[in-house]
Structure formats: structure tokens, C-alpha cells
Design brief:
The protein is globular and about 65 Å long. The protein is α+β, with helices and mostly antiparallel strands and about 475 residues long. The strands form four sheets. An eight-stranded antiparallel beta barrel has the order 1-2-3-4-5-6-7-8. Strands 10-9-21-20-19-18-17-16 form an eight-stranded antiparallel beta sheet.
């Protein structure tokens, strides 16, 4: 029996070893697939070969998704779908097919900078991090300081930097800390720097919440108790019911609309991908059947803040980005941003998200930490900030305010209460009221486990556990 067992182990080992060897591919071979290609909804993507981990990546906008080889010219994406590259009669790559669709190669000569693959270039094995205080930029309005007397642990931050740079925490793009009103720590990795815009993904939702508060403060939206459907009288919706007529603006903000839409439940009708590819995201969302009363169950539904954004546009009679530009962004000194809020199929791969640099992301946290004031001006009412940071629902097991997560991180049995705007990939704007601190982390761990919370738990918060 033991001999048979050992023989089975040997055969399995040989099989998997053979399979891995068969699928093994060199960096130079991967480079053959590089280029710009057609993609869905009349968009494009890039295919790039990484010299760091010898993998092929599909790059959609700013996001990199690994493609793992399974056989010659066939790779598997993160959804376990096959991506098959196509060749002409001379053997040259002409495009790829996936899920029954064919996409053509557009441009073979695409340059991919080396720094996009490494946290820091030209780092030797004996690399030792040296702290450099952030430099003040008179244009962004952020005060700067040093770690001295901040209460933060320099040794822990040094260890964090060592591990990010050596790749122990991959795809971290930036780490910023504001303590006692001053930016005291600021580090960037890969191709990111203090001016480069970063996609916020669902952290955009907290900016929508801020703009909703400003619109209410200005009387452009009468109340958070206004019904949603009253803003869409030109629409005809399916599954119309008394409950659907009762959905309020507050229900959108607390993710308690009651619509059959929950990212954590694959059986709900409100599939996010289906919404993204629909002609009108407002129609798609408000067409959904009701499965709970408004204000009842918290369900994470990306359609809710999208509808909220459209309500702001209709109430203010301007686009959401323009309203942000004339109010929130103007007051915070945010001039460098990208925001294409078009809730239809043209935004299927950009998700109507906001793009900001890390410093400007930190400003929203600092504004809320300071109860809505910036340089002595009340940008958002104190009441709105308090309401946004008050528990209104429980979403995916976490307390939830108005498009803000009310999360705690635990360090050696000590709970640290935070308010966070967060998005796929590791985008985090944390407000730590008790520590008078803001932490901002950006990253590229899309559709996979982000290390952002772990970095805060292990290297930032322990300094305050006593």
C-alpha cells in the first residue's frame, strides 16, 4: 500500500511538473504579444510583458490584470476565461479572441516604461530606506511637517518601506500620512508620484456623498428625505411599487434602497457588470425589483451612488464634475483631476470614477476630520459630516454611514475606529479622529487581496496603541 501511495505521489508530481514546464514561457516570448488592441464598447486595452514576474498583463486604463499561460497562445484571465491570441498565415499576432468575441491588434509598437514593474528602480539587496520629510507645495495648500514629535514610530515606517520596496507588499502605489494637520509622510512607488492621477474606484462614492451634502447645504436639493423617483418623472420604470416610490436620497446614501442589487450576492439581479454595459445606468438600477423596504437592509449596490450623482446633476443643472469643480474642488484647491461621469455603456471600463493624485485624496479626509472646514471656510456643514460618519446601516457586515465605511482595525486587541473611503485595488482614505490623523494608500491589487489595511495595522497604528 505504501509503495502504491509513493508511486501515485511520483506520478502526480511528474504530471504537474510536466504541465508547469509545458506552460513555462520566457519574457522574450511574452513580448511577442505586446501591443495595443481593440476591446469592448469601442475601447482599447494594452498587453504588456512583465520582466519582473514573467507574466503577461492586460492593461485597461490604469489597471493591470494578469494573464496566465495555459498552452501555446492561450492565457487565462482572472475570471478563468480563456484569452486566445490569433496569428496570420505568416505566424504574426493579429489579435485575440475571448468569450466568442474577436479583437484586432491595433499597434505593435507600444513602449512600456521599466518603472511600471518595480516599486523602485535600481534597488540593491542592501537597500536601506532613508526618511525624507514631504516638501511643501504652495499650490496645493497642504501644510507639511516631519515625523519628529508626531507620535509615529520611525522604525516601523522604515520596516514598512523596506518591505514595500523589496516586493513583500506588491502593487502599493503610494502611502501618505497627515498627523495633526501636517503631511509628515509621503512615499510613491512604481510610476506614481505626487502629481500623477490615480483611479479611485469606489472611493469616488465618498466624494459623491460630499457633493450631495453641499447641494443640500445650498438648498439645491431640498432634503435627504426627498424621493428618488421625483427626480426622474421623464422615465418609466419596471416593477413600479409603493416601496419603490418611497426610496429616498438618504436610502441611496446609506445603501438601503431595497433594490435587488448586492455585489456580495451573485444571485441578485443588479449585476454590476450588466449595469456597466447597459445603455442607461439610471434606468437599469431603478428598473430592478424591490427585495426589501427602503431603509431596511444594507446592500452594497454601485447603482445607488450613480443615481445619487444624476440627482445632483438634475438639481444643480450642471454636470457632476462641473459642480465639484465650482464647489468642493475649488475650495480645496483641487485643479488636477479627471472625472467623466457618463452613466452608460461608454463608462463600462472606467465606472464613472474620479481620478486624483494622492495629496488631493488626502484633502477630503482632512476636510472631514476638521468637521467640514478648510482654511477657515465651512465647505460642508458640520452636521453633514456628522451624519456621514454616523451609522445608518450595516453593509457586508460593516457599519456604514453616507457612502463612508465606518470600520475599525484591531492592533494587539486594541480597536482603532476609522472612517474610510475605499475602492477596489487598495484605494483608502482613512479618517482617524481619535488620533487626529489621515492615512491615504493607493494600490493596484485589483480584484485581489489588498495589503492597505495590513500596512496601517502593522506599521502605522501600533504607535498609538498605548
Amino acid at each position: 500500500m505504501k509503495k502504491e501511495y509513493l508511486l501515485l505521489l511520483f506520478l502526480l508530481s511528474a504530471y504537474f511538473g510536466h504541465t508547469q514546464q509545458k506552460n513555462k514561457i520566457t519574457y522574450e516570448q511574452l513580448k511577442e504579444y505586446e501591443g495595443s488592441y481593440e476591446y469592448t464598447n469601442k475601447t482599447t486595452l494594452k498587453i504588456a510583458a512583465s520582466p519582473k514576474d514573467t507574466l503577461l498583463y492586460a492593461i485597461i486604463n490604469e489597471s493591470k490584470y494578469p494573464l496566465k499561460p495555459t498552452e501555446k497562445d492561450v492565457f487565462q484571465n482572472m475570471s478563468k476565461e480563456n484569452v486566445t491570441f490569433l496569428r496570420n498565415n505568416t505566424g504574426a499576432i493579429t489579435g485575440y479572441s475571448s468569450e466568442g468575441n474577436t479583437f484586432n491588434l491595433l499597434n505593435k509598437k507600444v513602449v512600456f516604461p521599466k518603472e511600471m514593474w518595480y516599486p523602485r528602480l535600481n534597488v540593491t539587496k542592501d537597500f536601506k530606506y532613508v526618511y525624507v520629510p514631504p516638501k511643501k507645495d504652495p499650490l496645493d495648500g497642504l501644510a507639511t511637517g516631519t515625523l519628529d514629535n508626531s507620535g509615529l514610530d520611525k522604525a516601523l515606517l522604515n520596516e514598512m518601506m523596506q518591505k514595500i520596496v523589496n516586493g513583500s507588499y506588491p502593487n502599493v502605489h503610494s502611502v501618505l500620512i497627515i498627523k495633526d494637520g501636517k503631511l509628515v509622510f509621503e512615499e510613491y512607488f512604481y510610476e506614481y508620484n505626487k502629481t500623477k492621477l490615480h483611479e479611485l474606484r469606489s472611493a469616488t462614492k465618498s466624494f459623491v456623498s460630499a457633493l450631495a451634502g453641499i447641494a443640500i447645504d445650498k438648498g439645491l436639493i431640498k432634503s435627504k428625505d426627498e424621493t428618488v423617483l421625483s427626480y426622474f418623472k421623464d422615465y418609466t420604470f419596471k416593477h413600479l411599487s409603493d416601496d419603490k416610490r418611497e426610496i429616498t436620497i438618504e436610502d441611496l446614501l446609506s445603501n438601503e434602497s431595497g433594490l435587488d442589487c448586492d455585489v456580495s450576492n451573485p444571485k441578485t439581479e443588479g449585476n454590476e457588470t450588466a449595469m456597466n454595459n447597459s445603455a442607461d445606468w439610471i434606468q437599469y438600477t431603478l428598473d430592478l425589483p424591490m427585495i426589501a423596504i427602503p431603509g431596511g437592509n444594507g446592500m452594497y449596490c454601485s447603482g445607488n451612488p450613480i443615481v445619487m450623482g444624476k440627482i445632483i446633476e438634475r438639481a444643480t443643472k450642471m454636470t457632476l464634475p462641473d459642480f465639484a469643480k465650482q464647489t468642493l474642488f475649488k475650495d480645496l484647491g483641487i485643479t488636477n483631476f479627471k472625472w467623466n461621469f457618463k452613466p452608460d455603456a461608454s463608462s463600462a471600463e472606467t465606472f464613472c470614477q474620479l481620478y486624483l493624485n494622492s495629496r488631493d485624496m488626502a484633502k477630503l479626509g482632512l476636510l472631514y476630520l476638521n468637521k467640514g472646514t478648510w482654511n477657515g471656510k465651512q465647505v460642508i456643514s458640520k452636521n453633514w459630516v456628522q451624519e456621514s460618519f454616523t451609522k445608518h446601516s450595516v453593509v457586508q457586515g460593516v457599519n456604514y454611514g453616507y457612502l463612508w465605511w465606518l470600520k475599525y482595525l484591531e492592533v494587539n486587541g486594541v480597536r482603532f475606529e476609522g472612517k474610510v473611503a475605499q475602492g477596489n485595488g487598495g484605494q483608502k482614505i482613512y479618517v482617524w479622529e481619535d488620533q487626529n490623523m489621515i492615512t491615504v494608500i493607493t494600490g493596484g491589487n485589483y480584484n485581489s487581496q489588498s495589503s492597505s489595511d495590513e500596512l496601517i495595522q502593522k506599521y502605522i497604528l501600533p504607535a498609538f496603541k498605548n
